[in-house]
Amino acid sequence: MARVDIEAEFRKLLNRFETLCSIVRATWYEWRQAAMEFAREGVKPLDLVLKAWEIVGHDTAKSYFPVLDKSKPTFLEDIAKLIVMSSQAMGEDAKVIKGEKPNEVYVRWDSCPWPEFARRYGAPMEEDLLGCDKWFQTVIEDINALFNTKVRLETIKAIPKGDGICLRRLWIEE
Amino acid sequence: MPEVGKWDYSQYPGYKMFPNLFKPIKIGKLTIPNRIKYAATEDNFNTHDGFITDRDVAYMRERAKGVVGGICTMQGVFMDPKGEGKGYVGQAAAWDDKFIPGLKRIADAIHEEGAIANIQLMHCGRVGGVEIPYCVGPSAIPQRLRIFRPVVEMSKDDIKLCIKQHAEAARRGVEAGFDIVEISGIVGYLISNFLSKYTNRRTDEYGGDIENRCRFMVEIIEAVRDAVGPDVPIIIRLCAQELLDDVGGNTPEECMVTYKMAEKAGVDCISVTQGWQESTVPVITRDVPQGYWLFNAKRAKEAGIKVPISMAYRLFKPEMADKAIAEGIIDIWEMCRPMIADPLLPKKALEGRLEDIRPCIACNLCLARLFRDAPMTCATNPLCGHEWDPEWQLKPAETKKKVMIIGGGPAGLECAAAAAQRGHEVHVYDKRDILGGQVFWASKGPFGEDELYGVIEYQVTQCKKAGVNFHLGVEVTPKLIEEEMPDVVVIATGARFTIEKVPGWDRPNVVSAADVLEGKVETGERVVVWGGKGPGIVTALYLANKGKKVTLVARERKVGKDVNPSYVWRYIMKLGQLGVKVYRNATIEEIGEKEVIIKFIPYDLRLPIAADTVVYAEREPVTELIEAAKSVCSEVYVIGDALMPRRLHNAIHDGYRIGMRL
Predict the structure, then answer these.
(1) What is the ipTM of this complex?
(2) Which residue from B214, B180, B183, B182 is spatially nearest to B197, judged by alpha carbons?
(3) pTM here?
(4) Residue B138 CA: distances (Å) to CA of B143, B532, B559
(5) Chain B interface residues (partner A, CB cutoff 8 A)
(6) Which of B60, B74, B204, B265 has the fewest CB atoms within 10 Å of its CB?
């Protein structure tokens, strides 16, 4: 029976995954550039980017709907886990941290490639931060709209602001 | 109005077998001679602008024959000119008097067969707006299913108009000759959207607590009553259990409140249903045991509902319905899917011809077609949707032929029955002693797959009654074909499980899905099933259900690509529940004694995994006799999986199409 070098196969997969993550980010900024070149005069890149992240947020929320169950006590944590899963799928180092209060949970990013790409393509850090926030807020709004819940999200720390990590708090409002 | 008195059921054997099914009952002021109701079924047979077609009239006529004097319900009509309430591209309309002549054709056809005509009012709400970019509802709640349109919240003026449109449509129905008016409040349609706290977040008098959420329904009932008068019965279909716990839908107790409020508002009968289209719990497919949902009808009775209760939903057998009526759980046996498969089901029950009932296999192919804007079809009934077409009816053959059918699976049997019924001399050969082809193996799967063999039993009965000659345990050879000198040869040899000849393919631990499902071989604990289409999925479920650790390897990007989309999600859910690991875009590169190497095709990656047994479940057509048959016979047909491995409905339809033409 042929011997499969598992480590070699894994390195191949990892390499491809990392390449794909770069392609995703590069494609994002390439589209941004194309859209700005075609946009009518006066359109601000920030407005365009926020709209794009809103559209992404709606689509992301739809993908979360089938795996969320409001009747489970882990509902909030499950949302956080989905955000972590999406982040990890894009090559970000994210994890869920349980909060001190019962209806509270944090998501922490120890590293994220997005700011580096923003710099590479000449986009301001403010746009990177606000775009991210727009994505999260749209996802949470849609979850609340479907499940009739009061999940809230706030950004406490952000890598684009120079904080070194991103930290977001999720909680369910009473 | 049909004459109730003309139905004397006592002269039929079914009257003694199912005494409760053929007793009269009053719905409002109308006496129904029996406890049979054909439930409303969308079929996409009508024109896009809502006019009734010959096709739909013929379809309904057959069902009217079947209810032997009972209630025959036409599909739900949409009632607004914009099409906000339209959920299906071929849905019938009743938003203007111009539709009355077409509706009258349906009512007349039903009456001509001696049945009672029921029109259903159906605003599809959250599922509506099929030909516009939005739908309407009590609140603008996002859609969970991508195929539905975004919801626009209705204003109070919209609500009032909608109520008026219900009343006008009811009036048109009565003018067209319908005897009963039914209101649909189920599965995610508009009334159910108002009733449910999942989709109704209004803060006005139409939202809030359950009583307020019922207001829309109550106002519709009252408006319809005003429109049709006191003598026309009103039926309503309502959810007894929404199965929307994951999104905060109504509790079962709240559902019973809706029942009581509907009764108080003046309905004459309630039809019990469960689940919404977006529920993630299976409701009407064969993985749900027959009779499972009767407890919801019982709840309605125990809640104190006094008007008659009817129910469909996995209630396929007359004996089950008869018992449920005897026990006071339901009052009327309603059928939708079973009478798509066999429009004459209740008639055959009355005549004591249970063996002649063509079974529904609860595969939801009918629904899958509707959601993809196609005319409805039925897996087991090739005539469904073709009732109007004289070319599709079995006519006596102009020239009697000797027909040799090679293969006793569903394609061969369907062809045999059709051909023999037309007067041909038909011989069916099969090298095995048992009939059924691959259905024999498929029916060994868990979660209701055993119901599949009911189709074979039905086909064999029809063949025997038509005088088909069976030659079982006979392997057909070119010499035999030559000796028999048939006028026609039909190759229905089906498909065989096959394996790609990768290194290790002929090891003793490599077995076919057929041998596994037939119980001829035992597998080890760790099993790799190679083949991600329907047969592979069923084999994986069979093994996982027995406690094996199963990995399913699928070449395709999605598993179950051949399974209809309205069923495949159940298979995928069960694979997940049983812990089956699924690898897609993958194949097996090599098989060892205790290991296989999986190769991911687009990525050129390999993964060795532990495996005691490899079960191959891909198929290839069995075609060896085609050339031999063509060399001795001028009329040769290839049908079913022998043509190309596909699904059961393809086999049955292939067989019928050839049998009707020979």
Answers:
(1) 0.85
(2) B214
(3) 0.94
(4) 13, 42, 37
(5) 140-144, 146, 197-198, 201, 245-248, 280, 503-504, 589-590, 592-593, 595, 597, 603-608
(6) B204
